[in-house]
Write a structure and sequence with these properties.
- The structure holds two protein chains of two kinds.
- Chain A is mostly helical.
- Helix content of chain A is about 75%, strand content about 0%.
- Chain A is built from 19 helices and two strands.
- Chain A has a two-stranded antiparallel ribbon with strand order 1-2.
- In chain A, helix 4 packs parallel to helix 11 and helix 10 (about 215-220) packs antiparallel against helix 11 (about 225-245).
- By secondary structure, chain B is α/β, with parallel strands linked by helices.
- The longest helix of chain B is centred in the N-terminal third of the chain and has 28 residues, at about 20-45.
- Classes of the chains: A mainly alpha, B alpha/beta.
- Chain A: It is a multi-pass membrane protein.
- Chain A: Keywords: Electron transport, Membrane, Mitochondrion, Mitochondrion inner membrane, NAD, Respiratory chain, Translocase, Transmembrane, Transmembrane helix, Transport, Ubiquinone.
- Chain A: It catalyses: a ubiquinone + NADH + 5 H(+)(in) = a ubiquinol + NAD(+) + 4 H(+)(out).
């Protein structure tokens, strides 16, 4: 792992000591190189893990997420170039340092061997994200958003700390590699229910689960573009990844305790999708669609079947790429029109046709069009949940329908229609923006050809 | 706190001290109430939900971002805000900020106007606008209803306008009335004989024809409309800010048209709003700017760079709106025309109407071009009344020979020097500035219709109900005047 961690840490001197005119190209290219290096993690011949050291390992579950994280850093840096243009050099470098430190923590989180190390890094990722949202966000509401984000996640995860320390005391070790082997059934008592709640709540808030999702629209909308990208693509998946790891030790309790959360997820999916239909703010729409997709992932993880785990992993990767791409598209709109309201930027297809192509592709993958991996994920989750309970197909089917509705609504409002007078002089799409979109879309399309890589540990 | 409680509690049991100490015990109590509400306000501003800057108080500043910024909070600006909020498809879709320099409206044309509304124009669009406004004003308590607020009483006096024409102007008047009738206005033509029968106080010497509006014409209280609009617009979620727009920050794109000429299109992305009596300003990031600044629309347009270019080109075409001062005089005449008197406009241009029920009348005259008063201040020239206004009025209405001027005021007329009709719609070069200004004296009566037209332009991209394309800015460059046929 040092081959990834040390270069990431070395990105700090790259930003601070580079020539001022070269910081963007240097950081972007080096982070791209690091992500290419990480592609070797995809070599997973079997279900076992690649153990790199006493502290780090990678697994068919964590390697796709790891590669997604590393792939996202150059994209985030490319996307931030425009809105940081007018800032002084010191602030630009601080912003990049925040992104790089976040990247470092995330890489270590996904490969952590031990649950307490995972927890520490999980919490550590909050700090650079909070700084990015509250310092570089666009509006005064960002302070509010930062507060919500920080306190929701912290309060959710404090019980997890207590639970982990208790488990460490009682079990002696929280090493993920050996956890499979000292599994004991949890006794059927109130204390195991509490333990279950304590372990799971942190990840539920992070995913987010429908009842605890209030922080997400605020944080996504107020964050600058790199913050939105990393939040949507990676930070939400931390919750999914953590839940998949920790449910190993929570075994029979999950069968009973998961019911309320499953109900909340199934209901929440439809609620948040319906809210998307009524949204006027573009970023807010994409944020609520994230909640909706993640609700599917929570359902998959709580059902605990091989197929659902495959669906969950596929959906996490697919949603990461799609959501991040949608945020980049919304940001390209915002940079031109200086407003996030969808209604004010209509008819863009005639003005920016190539960007319209990216909008179309992103909307199509968002609504899970075959044969994209979004569909594979959703399909597996749906089939698994159907086998868990036949009635859930109604809710899931309704959700798919509403997802298609709002994705198309977003596409048609922004792209079709008569362009307005105040869009007469839009800057044409920059090469940087087109590269950004293609770097999101091409992995998504290529993964359609070989989805085995992202189907996770139960393949 | 403890000490006070001990003192108050101990005061009863122990030896009672004089009333001085009891008074000393209760005044901190009164102070404490004020302190508690202050603390409560501070806590509320810190908790999530408020826009809070930890370093200094920003509650008086406008927000850092707004989708639409309306420069000018008079009746036109508020009308645009109202219709933007009414025609947006989802509630809360568009964030609107109205920036008004003077919240007392001491110099605004809206409140200094005499509040007349009539349909006797020659341009069909003007007639349609006034007709819509009349129906808006009739149903104002349905349009501008706010929960738990009392209904508005506009004091609409539907007494009509009476325009008088001499031999020379009779033909124009007939053709105008034909256009008005086509559009649906109810106007009737009267001969001098009929005039004398209907209004015995008129001296019909020199009058060949008169047109009298029978429905939807009259006068109303502009303050009431303004307050009603303000109340409603605030309840719909529009933000108000007291400040002056001092700068537009814009980005330019140099582009080429299909024929190869180079144009520079600008887009305003930030508006600097300066607070009153201080150097503090707030940059408001915006997507659309609406220029509804009334008499000062020309200055606001210059801030945006409209008119900076070689004359004769589109870049060099200014917004030709400038403030002109108009006087309104209030006089008392006990033998004057009765309660049924309409707003009479004489052949000379002098006009008067009844004001209230105490034999008071309002009136004035638009001075000819050469004798325009200086618009630097709003001082009233009573000599103008003596020399120019009184003689024609006294000739037309003999009862006005004995009158006593009670008071007078002056107001600005946002005069369009090009063709004295309004400017509506986007500017061809500054792509996100929309105009709703320059109505030269009939802005108040056309405000609801114009507001709706601008809102449709912003939200739909074209005029839907009333087609105001003759009023676009490009007519200044193309030289297409839409002038009212003035009746002499």
């Amino acid at each position: 792992m040092l081959k990834i961690i040390v270069p990431t840490i070395m990105l700090f001197p790259v930003t601070w000591y580079s020539n001022n005119s070269k910081i963007w190209i240097n950081t972007t290219s080096y982070s791209l190189l690091i992500s290419f290096m990480g592609l070797s993690f995809l070599n997973q011949p079997n279900n076992n893990s690649n153990n790199f050291s006493m502290n780090f390992f990678s697994d068919p579950l964590s390697s796709p997420l790891l590669i997604l994280t590393m792939w996202l850093l150059p994209l985030m840096i490319m996307a931030s170039q425009y809105h940081l243009k007018k800032e002084p050099w010191l602030r630009k470098k601080s912003y990049l340092s925040m992104l790089i430190s976040l990247q470092m923590f995330l890489v270590m989180t996904f490969t952590a061997n031990e649950l307490i190390l995972f927890y520490i890094l999980f919490e550590a990722t909050l700090i650079p994200t909070l700084i990015i949202i509250t310092r570089w966000g666009n509006q005064t509401e960002r302070l509010n958003a930062g507060l919500y984000f920080l306190f929701y996640t912290l309060i959710g995860s404090l019980p997890l700390l207590v639970a982990l320390i208790h488990l460490q005391n009682s079990m002696g070790s929280l090493n993920l590699l050996t956890m499979n082997f000292w599994l004991k059934e949890l006794p059927n008592s109130w204390s195991s229910n509490l333990l279950w709640m304590a372990c799971i709540m942190a990840f539920m808030v992070k995913m987010p689960l429908y009842g605890f999702h209030l922080w997400l629209p605020k944080a996504h909308v107020e964050a600058p573009i790199a913050g939105s990208m990393v939040l949507a693509a990676v930070l939400l998946k931390l919750g999914g990844y953590g839940m998949m790891r920790i449910t190993i030790i929570l075994d029979p309790t999950t069968k009973a305790m998961a019911y309320p959360f499953l109900m909340l997820c199934l209901w929440g999916m439809i609620m948040t999708s319906s809210i998307c239909l009524r949204q006027t703010d573009l970023k807010s729409l994409i944020a609520y669609s994230s909640v909706s997709h993640m609700a599917l992932v929570i359902v998959a993880i709580l059902i605990q079947t091989p197929w659902s785990f495959m669906g969950a992993t596929a959906l996490m990767i697919a949603h990461g790429l799609t959501s991040s791409m949608l945020f980049c598209l919304a940001n390209s709109n915002y940079e031109r029109i200086h407003s996030r309201t969808m209604l004010l930027a209509r008819g863009l297809q005639t003005l920016l046709p190539l960007m319209a192509t990216w909008w179309l592709l992103a909307s199509l993958t968002n609504l899970a069009l075959p044969p994209s991996i979004n569909l594979i994920g959703e399909l597996f989750v749906m089939m698994a949940s159907f086998s868990w309970s036949n009635i859930s197909i109604i809710l899931m089917g309704l959700n798919m329908l509403i997802t298609a509705l709002y994705s198309l609504y977003m596409l048609i409002t922004t792209q079709r229609g008569k362009p307005t007078f105040h869009t007469h002089n839009l800057n044409p799409s920059f090469t940087r923006e087109n590269t950004l979109m293609s770097m999101h879309m091409l992995p998504l399309l290529f993964l359609t050809l070989n989805p085995k890589t992202i189907l996770g540990p139960t393949l | 706190m403890l000490r006070r409680a001990l003192r108050l509690g101990g005061g009863r049991g122990l030896v009672t001290r004089g009333p001085g100490s009891r008074g000393g015990g209760s005044t901190p109590g009164k102070d404490w109430d004020g302190k508690v509400s202050e603390i409560k306000k501070k806590i509320q501003s810190i908790l999530p939900g408020g826009a809070w800057n930890p370093l200094y108080d920003t509650s008086h500043l406008p927000p850092e971002h707004s989708d639409v910024v309306i420069v000018g909070g008079g009746v036109l600006g508020l009308s645009v805000a109202y219709w933007l909020k009414k025609l947006e498809k989802r509630r809360g879709a568009i964030r609107v900020l109205v920036v008004e320099r003077d919240h007392t409206y001491s110099q605004a044309s809206t409140v200094l106007s005499i509040g007349g509304i009539h349909q006797q124009f020659s341009v069909p669009e003007n007639i349609q606008l006034s007709l819509f406004s009349a129906s808006f004003l009739r149903n104002i308590n349905e349009y501008l209803a706010v929960v738990d607020a009392p209904p508005l009483d506009l004091q609409f006096n539907p007494l009509g306008y009476l325009l008088l024409a001499s031999e020379k102007g009779a033909a124009t008047m007939e053709s105008n009335v034909r256009v008005q009738r086509q559009e649906g206005a109810k106007v009737c033509l009267m001969s001098p004989e009929q005039l004398r029968n209907k209004f015995p106080w008129i001296n019909t010497e020199g009058v060949a024809l008169a047109s009298y509006g029978m429905e939807n014409e009259g006068w109303f209280d502009p303050w009431c409309l303004l307050q009603g609009l303000r109340r409603k617009v605030q309840s719909m979620g529009v933000l108000f800010c007291q400040g002056e727009v001092t700068r537009f920050v814009s980005s330019s794109n140099h582009m080429k048209t299909t024929s190869g000429t180079e144009v520079t299109l600008k887009r305003i992305y930030e508006v600097h709003v300066k607070m009153d009596h201080s150097l503090e300003y707030q940059p408001v990031e915006c997507a659309i700017v609406i220029n509804a600044a009334g008499a000062w629309s020309g200055q606001v347009a210059e801030l945006a760079g409209i008119g900076k270019g070689p004359p004769g080109t589109l870049q060099g075409t200014r917004l030709p709106v400038e403030p002109r001062k108009r006087y309104v005089y209030l006089w008392h005449c006990p033998q004057g025309p009765g309660l049924e008197a309409p707003l009479v406009t004489d052949i000379s241009g002098a006009y008067f109407r009844r004001e209230g029920l105490g034999n008071n009348y309002l009136g004035g005259l638009s001075p000819p071009e050469e004798e325009e008063p200086d618009p630097g201040n709003l001082e009233v020239d009573y000599g103008f009344f003596q020399d120019k206004v009184w003689p024609p009025l006294a000739q037309r209405v003999p009862a006005f020979e004995t009158l006593k001027v009670r008071s007078a005021w002056a107001g600005y007329n946002d005069y369009n020097t090009f063709d004295q009709n309004g400017v509506v719609g986007p500017h061809p070069l500054v792509v996100n500035m929309y105009f709703a200004a320059g109505f030269s004296g009939h802005g108040l009566q056309q405000a609801p219709g114009v507001g709706r037209a601008v809102a449709e332009m912003v939200l739909e991209g074209h005029f839907q109900t009333i087609d105001l394309s003759p009023f676009l800015f490009s007519r200044f460059y193309l030289g297409e005047k839409i002038q009212e046929q003035v009746i002499i």
